[in-house]
Design goal:
This protein has a single domain, classed as YbaK/aminoacyl-tRNA synthetase-associated domain (YbaK protein, Alpha-Beta Complex). The chain has 156 residues and is an alpha+beta fold. It is globular and about 40 Å long. The protein is 28% helix and 31% strand. A 5-stranded mixed β-sheet has the order 5-2-3-6-9.
Length: 156
């Protein structure tokens, strides 16, 4: 199922929009004219052999030690591009939507996304290509992604 079909099936109000090509979440924030805290960046990790979609603000990076502790894992590593290509064959590399459920993997969201704004606050993320993005409320994102909440992000 593609992202648009999934969002429609879930009854989410969203805006799908086209933008100049962006390859980083910070560039997407600039294209959307929003702060990096409002753009959700996905990072896929392997935690003791299980893939996990991590969702954090564009202007943050993952603290792997904090993430390992939060996931109660022995080993956590960021997956390589070859693995991403296998996990998301219909998605442009680096443009994955931060909704693990769409791909059959769990999502964990950094607590700064939840702490810094209300459920009505808009969030933006790539929609599977480097030229399309989705904007929706944080509350709708949380409803459809059903993420666990953990502390693992560090401001860059």
């Amino acid at each position: 199922m593609n992202l648009r079909d999934y969002l429609d099936e879930q009854g989410v109000r969203y805006q799908l929009w086209h933008h100049p090509t962006t390859y980083t979440s910070q560039d997407l924030a600039a294209a959307a004219h929003v702060p990096g805290e409002r753009v959700i960046k996905p990072v896929v990790v392997d935690a003791d052999g299980q893939f996990v979609m991590c969702a954090l603000p564009a202007c943050y990076r993952i603290d792997l030690d904090e993430l390992r502790n939060s996931l109660h894992a022995d080993k956590v590593r960021i997956v390589d591009e070859q693995t991403l290509g296998r996990l998301f064959p219909d998605i442009e590399l680096g443009a994955e939507p931060p909704i693990g459920r769409l791909f059959g993997i769990p999502t964990v969201m950094d607590d700064t996304l939840a702490a810094d704004s209300s459920d009505d606050a808009p969030v933006t993320f790539q929609a599977g290509t480097h030229e399309e993005a989705v904007t929706m409320s944080l509350g709708d994102y949380r409803r459809i992604a059903q993420p666990d909440i953990a502390h693992f992000g560090r401001h860059m």
